[in-house]
Predict the structure.
Amino acid sequence: MIVLALNAGSSSLKFGVFKAATKRKVEPLMRGLFDGLAVTPRFSAQDAAGRLLADAPLRLPGQSTGALLQELLNFLDTRLGSEQIVAVGHRIVHGGSRFISPVHLTSEVVDALDKLTPIAPLHQPASLGPVRALSELRPGLMQIGCFDTAFHSTLAPPVSRYAIPREYEEMGIKRYGFHGLSYEFIAHQLGRISPELPAKKTVVAHLGSGCSLCAMVDGKCQDTTMGFTALDGVMMATRSGAVDPGIILYLQKTCGLSIDEVETLLYRRSGLLGVSGISADMRVLLASSDPRAAAAIDLFAFSVSRAIAALANTLGGIELLVFTGGIGEHAAQVRNAICRRLDWLGVKLDPSKSHDVLSDSDSKVEVRVVATNEEMAIARQVHLTLESATGPSEAASA
């Protein structure tokens, strides 16, 4: 049973191809990426062993989502031969209160998810675009939505509640949390690394273009930094993270910014880009000698370390700190800056270590790097959804 997992962003489209092996286990066959979608798309793919299968710019008319997916389907048809894709799983950023488990993406469901776009203006359209395009390209192919908010669906007051009039909470204004597929994968991986790890009071820092943190115990979310939208929480590449709500009022009433201009400022012009005035890419900032780059990195480390301390308060302590995401996995300088601010919590790094376990032997908090794989989390959810719908024997022969 072959499952295609799609992870659509605002400027990229990641994919993974998996074969169902046993219940709860899928084997990766290949993974790849369409990058640079805002300019000139480039397609790359690797097999499960990391061998390059494709890497080339694409000349596609209009660079539409449909054209990209047709290119991908043509590539996969050639590579898979007689094996057929039985389902496509999509990362859907916001599921709201209604969608807290994987769901068959019917037209009615897609329309309902589209209504959540004002809460996730950057991500929801990107999530739903491939769903609609595939419905045109392969009408009979089952598509299943897997939600970034679902992992946090167990959050309850006071963690989930905002200090606003109760009628707005009843309308659905509450903390939802995001990056749930990444956190689900990390929770699963911790159990594979050691059966003792999941029970620890754990904070996972998903640091990439978008950044959030999650407090968990036994693979269950206890608290998280993103809230009603993916704009909340810590500083990000181009997003501000949490700001004084009075700033938004000031920008509108005194500076004369429109609602759309404020949205653009907070989502696209802030964060690392806004503070540095140089780049939203942490790699560029780390390589720069400009003091503004150093200031942006320092604010980022402060923002993340403060969030870790707050989540430790929710947990009543911290025993395990996990870094993941592009920055979390690869930017040792940033990890070090964050951990130096947590010395008072007993966090001590071993400078000779750069992967897996980073903490010193006398550190009170175990510090790890664990690579995330949202596409595999999607494939697992799709496989389990198909098994529960058809039964193991039918799913295996589908």
